[in-house]
Design brief:
Layout lengths: L1 E9 L2 E9 L7 E5 L10 H9 L3 E5 L17 H18 L6 E6 L1 H12 L6 E5 L7 H7 L18 H9 L10 H16 L8 E6 L7 H10 L5 E6 L12 H23 L1
Parallel strand pairs: 3-4, 3-5, 5-6, 6-7, 7-8
Antiparallel strand pairs: 1-2, 2-4
Helix pairs in contact: 2-3, 3-6
């Protein structure tokens, strides 16, 4: 397995990327898009498992997150972040032996970014998987934005997983933002959600929906409705009873990883069959 850390110019400074690849020619490039407050390096275990399945994996840190530059946990325009992701994918393809399919995997806020990527460039992605994704009507954000001041709340680590070691590691990680939500971020995310709904018919690739029924941050119902509204030719829907927000760090993460691997394999197989 090969691993490389890459830096490219983003819209607010330097972006930090991580690229894993197998020794043989990869079957596809998987672009992992992390959620709010965290960073791409938290998905190293996911990347390593995918590489064992013959896939290359790219995990960027969004602007203001992880090792990337920018004010901490602040995104003021999701369209500019999508621009960054397009540049990140191009940088990865330059380092891989040949062109190959691109598959997106988005967690939480990263799920919305994955959707907006597909809507911007429908021809660039062969499939998109949504994990605990913010793609429904985020009622909480709309409610707090109507207040003169945001409530003094942050994300309770115990909502991330039933695995208490995961929760403790999340809280102790110096690269995880532990401050309060910023109004400009919430405003930008609500705008991006509205744009997503307006352009939902542009998502015409296979999609996978993976969500915990006990997710305290992103209730699955509204996000599932968005999946059902997409005109995608193939939809895989997996609900995990009792699971919380970070499915890939849950106590049943082996089951979730197996489901993700199967979805990627099925998506690439169907792509090959339709192209021959």
């Amino acid at each position: 397995m090969n691993f490389e850390e890459i830096q490219i110019n983003g819209h607010e400074g330097i972006l930090h990327l991580r690229l894993w690849s197998p020794s043989e020619k990869p079957r596809a490039l998987v672009l992992i898009l992390h959620g709010y407050a965290e960073y791409g390096g938290r998905y190293a275990h996911v990347a390593e498992a995918l590489v064992e399945n013959g896939l290359a994996v790219l995990a960027p840190d969004h602007v203001g997150h992880g090792l990337s530059e920018g004010e901490r946990a602040l995104i003021t325009d999701f369209g500019l972040v999508v621009d960054d992701l397009g540049a990140a994918a191009a940088a990865a393809f330059e380092r891989l032996p040949s062109q190959m399919p691109l598959v997106l995997v988005g967690h939480s806020m990263g799920g919305l970014l994955a959707a907006r990527f597909v809507q911007r460039w429908p021809e660039r992605a062969s499939g998109a998987a949504f994990f605990g994704a913010v793609i429904g009507d985020w009622k909480w954000a709309r409610e707090v934005l109507s207040l003169p001041e945001l409530p003094p709340e942050d994300s309770d680590p115990l909502g991330m997983s039933r695995d208490l070691e995961v929760c403790a590691a999340y809280e102790a990680d110096p690269l995880v933002y532990r401050g309060l939500y910023k109004r400009a971020l919430l405003e930008a995310e609500v705008i991006a959600l509205d744009q997503f709904r307006e352009e939902i018919d542009n998502i015409q690739i296979p999609v996978g929906f993976f969500h915990g029924t006990a997710d305290p941050f992103v209730p699955y119902g509204d996000s599932l409705q968005a999946i059902e509204d997409m005109p995608s030719p193939a939809k895989t829907i997996k609900l995990y009873d009792g699971a919380k927000h970070e499915l890939l760090n849950e106590i049943n993460k082996k089951e979730v990883m197996s489901d993700l691997q199967r979805w990627v394999d099925d998506t690439l197989r169907d792509l090959k069959e339709t192209s021959t």
